[in-house]
């Protein structure tokens, strides 16, 4: 049996390794268009900031290490340009040589990931304009900052990547301005009411956040970025621009091969991560996945989902099994996200109010402020918790937590509770969250929020 | 309706306040033998260490504040010496006056708590020998340390209170020696394999831990403690001794009134916190409670359990309702405990291996070491996770987590998972724990432990 894995950053290597583990007799071949596999993409902002310890080149495994340790064949600088699933055939381009060849496989796993969304404004291809998606992006940005006379960087997009990049700029001693239509960071994950501590920390760091959109990137005679023009007609002078306005699944290869996409624009898969084509599975940032609470399909391009879907895809690709015959199943994601920037942890789990509403729930949101430790314990910090519950049954739908400490892990507690359908009453009364003066106040902030929700529901 | 609440430290005030909230027309009277109500008992070690911020006298509410804010009658220095439930009668002793009187009530809530266990060795009543249970204890110990020429303190018992006290001594610049039969701290909560980081931190702080038991406390001519003699025949010179060998429920009043005790020696209650006597409820450290996983009755003298059982007792006492008629129900505890001492967080949730075995499970324990953040992220620390699962179904029974950061909240994640019956497979594959370089590694240590358990189960 020959299995082809297409894409080698995170999901691809995980799938290839798992396939080989499950079927040592199979021949597993991985193709990656870029020169690198197994890149620690999530560390890139810290790499750019020069904050990482040890071997800081973000390469978790070289192609040779990946091949040797996992027993798979790895081809970097090889782009798959065509997939004929019925015929079991791939066309591969060795990009360094501009040469193509055909290869035959029995099964295919698509892990082509996502690309950074572009702005679609004039000047976007100027020197000094970057996205942050691949190792080449990260190295390019870092080199630019090290070699050009950069003083001010415009970061377009206030999502978690934009926020991390802005912090990286400040770590490098540069001025940074974030442009985000909402005029604040993490607007998709955090309600404005709960974001105060983060907003103030960003502001205190000297990073400006402006409710503007770039309409043009202006360059000097040398082709280098000089300024960004915004939809308010402002011109913001800068020597670098980082575009961090989200990602879109890289589906061209799949589409051309007849793979069906879902409503989100990502590849549609069943619970075995199988596409509509019999011998094609997909995983990672290129697929859409069911959301645990309501089963809706969402595009959730984060690493843990990629890793898990990769394993499911690989196991099923190897066995070609379905649920009824014991195939491995991906049950879905409980969306959760966390960042630490400018000394503040911000985390969200499950639905926001808007998402809950869109999903047909009648959400109730409550927000409380408490302390991270017993109030009199030194180092105790304010913590803001926003809890979103379903008015009908009091089920916990989501939560947002912001504090200088002990916030992100609390979102993990919510993930577990949401996953198992816990209600506000369960959390308020039944879940024994720890009390210890240096670690948590007498009544955990999550429980206080749940009690507040109960009070409002009654 | 007149309701008497007996005991005013933590559970008592919570019960009294809740009773008044539920039945504003009722007369709620609280009796407390000591001069204080609403004491922050868990902060006492830090109070003794002089580490607390602000008003550091541990009094959360004065009797007057408690009375005024909650609308209840509060009598401090009033000990209830006799309870005749059938006749609806209490005998109360005003300890300052050595005077007793009788009072009539319709319903009674016992919140008489627990007392520190004593050693039962000669010399225990010497000056300079303390337990740490009441505010008077804490003040007495602190004054002793401030006014006597203390250099070395022997702490008997290496549980979480003993550990916190030893840290307090070191914070005061004193030498401390912990005596514990197991020769290590938190021996009941942590398996020796997982405790390494904590053991090393205790050792590095200069606190000695000795596998010895005191057999006698030696005093000088002035009646002050001079040394502790141990079961190994050693004599350890010291100028103070703190006995922290656990607590026992204070059940005399209840027993004399005909209240049934459970196997643990604490008061037996039903799920409404009602005792065998029709008009008597009980809550807090004086009752035993069902453990969530197996329903076994345990004595679990921690503050969150006290608060919750207090509310259930109060609501049912007010309404005298039972489950079938909609009474509030206490479902049980998922035992969980956490400490931070000497820079290390140590936490445990659910069963230890021994407890699981005793409860009739066939436990499998796995232990992994990982990092608290991405390995290359500055500040990343080792984290040790021990996971205990049921061999039969892979159900998560318990876990122990030790690290310099991000440990305690992870125990809360386990609490939620245990509470809802999650299996190792669920945790390894289905629970979306956050990944973000400064906050957590790519695969959460809990998930790595769960995968290790799956591997061993297969
Ligand atoms: C700056 C940044 C920070 C992040 N931080 C976090 C975080 O904190 N937590 C978190 O959970 N997630 C984070 N993520 C997201 C995480 O990195 C992604 O979920 C993960 O990289 C997805 O892996 P993937 O392999 O599915 O897709 P990609 O990473 O997109 O990899 C796809 C690979 O396929 C290759 N490819 C595509 N088409 C072809 C073809 N036709 N032939 C050959 N090769 C092809 C591409 O070159 C690419 O290398 C972050 C991402 C970025 C960019
Ligand atoms: C040093 C220390 C640290 C702790 N740390 C933690 C921690 O980090 N986390 C945690 O969850 N828990 C902790 N605890 C435990 C927590 O403090 C207890 O669970 C809580 O105090 C129990 O409250 P209670 O009201 O049930 O009992 P108690 O605190 O024992 O109070 C009972 C009260 O009843 C009074 N009383 C008894 N009999 C009579 C009578 N006949 N008449 C009138 N009054 C009477 C007593 O004087 C006493 O004040 C700690 C405890 C100590 C001592």
UniProtKB/TrEMBL annotation, chains A, B:
<dbReference type="Pfam" id="PF02852">
    <property type="entry name" value="Pyr_redox_dim"/>
</dbReference>
<dbReference type="Pfam" id="PF07992">
    <property type="entry name" value="Pyr_redox_2"/>
</dbReference>
<feature type="domain" description="Pyridine nucleotide-disulphide oxidoreductase dimerisation">
    <location>
        <begin position="339"/>
        <end position="442"/>
    </location>
</feature>
<comment type="similarity">
    <text>Belongs to the class-III pyridine nucleotide-disulfide oxidoreductase family.</text>
</comment>
<keyword id="KW-0676">Redox-active center</keyword>
<keyword id="KW-0274">FAD</keyword>
<protein>
    <recommendedName>
        <fullName>NADH oxidase</fullName>
    </recommendedName>
</protein>
<keyword id="KW-0285">Flavoprotein</keyword>
<dbReference type="InterPro" id="IPR004099">
    <property type="entry name" value="Pyr_nucl-diS_OxRdtase_dimer"/>
</dbReference>
<feature type="domain" description="FAD/NAD(P)-binding">
    <location>
        <begin position="1"/>
        <end position="294"/>
    </location>
</feature>
<dbReference type="GO" id="GO:0016491">
    <property type="term" value="F:oxidoreductase activity"/>
</dbReference>
<dbReference type="InterPro" id="IPR036188">
    <property type="entry name" value="FAD/NAD-bd_sf"/>
</dbReference>
<dbReference type="InterPro" id="IPR023753">
    <property type="entry name" value="FAD/NAD-binding_dom"/>
</dbReference>
<dbReference type="InterPro" id="IPR050260">
    <property type="entry name" value="FAD-bd_OxRdtase"/>
</dbReference>
<keyword id="KW-0560">Oxidoreductase</keyword>
<dbReference type="InterPro" id="IPR016156">
    <property type="entry name" value="FAD/NAD-linked_Rdtase_dimer_sf"/>
</dbReference>
